Structures are given as structure tokens and as C-alpha cells.
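F.,

This is the one I mentioned.
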């Protein structure tokens, strides 16, 4: 317990880490950079910090997706890792809804690697042992 409390106190001033996952229309790398720059601007304008970005490239989608009155069989996958406040993450989600090239988007909060994992505090329900 003591180690957990020290870790929480040491990193209390650091905003939480998030990962934005994007499925975009099939596009070139230049167009992708424009979308990522817009998302990064929302984060940095509110005092957030961009940790990294990853472009997976154009891939066949697992199922046909419909967005903006069109069906899409292929799309571009990208990820953006950042530190920011929860309000900034909500603002980013709102902005991405209005982007016409975004097919799907999601933001997940990442677990802090400096705080040790304790299964007692996990949200997952425990299975009955047979």
C-alpha cells in the first residue's frame, strides 16, 4: 500500500495519458498529417502534451463502414498518444465527430506505468473457480 501511495503522490501533477485511435477514409500520408495536426492542436492549445503518433497505413476494413452517406471497404488506421485533462479528451472527441474524413474514432485512458498493478482493484469480475 505504501508504494502505491508514494507513486500516486509523485505523479499527481502529471495529467493522465490517453490514446486516440482513428479509422479514416483511404488517404495519402499528407492528408493524414493534416488530420493529426488538427487533433494535436486541440491537445496542445489546452496545455496537453503529444507523446507520439503512429500510422498503420491503408488497410482493408474488417467490415463495410458507412460514413457521410458513403460505404467504405478500405481505410487508414492511425494512433495518437497524448497527456491532457479529461475535458480536453472530450473536446477532441467532439471535434472529430465533425471531421468528414473520420470513419471511427475512440479515446482510451492508458494505465500509468509508474503505479503498480493490483488485481484487487481491477474492474473485471472474477470468474468462479471450478
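My design for it:
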Amino acid at each position: 500500500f505504501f508504494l502505491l501511495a508514494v507513486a500516486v503522490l509523485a505523479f499527481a501533477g502529471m495529467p493522465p495519458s490517453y490514446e486516440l485511435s482513428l479509422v479514416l477514409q483511404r488517404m495519402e500520408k499528407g492528408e493524414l498529417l493534416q488530420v493529426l495536426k488538427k487533433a494535436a492542436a486541440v491537445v496542445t492549445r489546452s496545455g496537453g502534451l503529444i507523446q507520439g503518433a503512429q500510422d498503420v497505413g491503408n488497410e482493408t476494413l474488417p467490415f463495410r463502414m458507412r460514413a457521410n452517406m458513403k460505404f467504405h471497404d478500405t481505410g487508414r488506421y492511425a494512433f495518437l498518444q497524448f497527456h491532457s485533462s479529461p475535458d480536453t479528451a472530450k473536446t477532441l472527441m467532439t471535434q472529430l465527430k465533425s471531421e468528414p474524413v473520420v470513419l471511427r474514432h475512440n479515446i482510451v485512458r492508458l494505465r500509468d506505468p509508474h503505479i503498480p498493478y493490483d488485481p484487487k482493484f481491477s474492474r473485471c469480475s472474477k470468474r468462479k473457480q471450478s
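The first helix runs from residue 2 to 10.

Talk soon.
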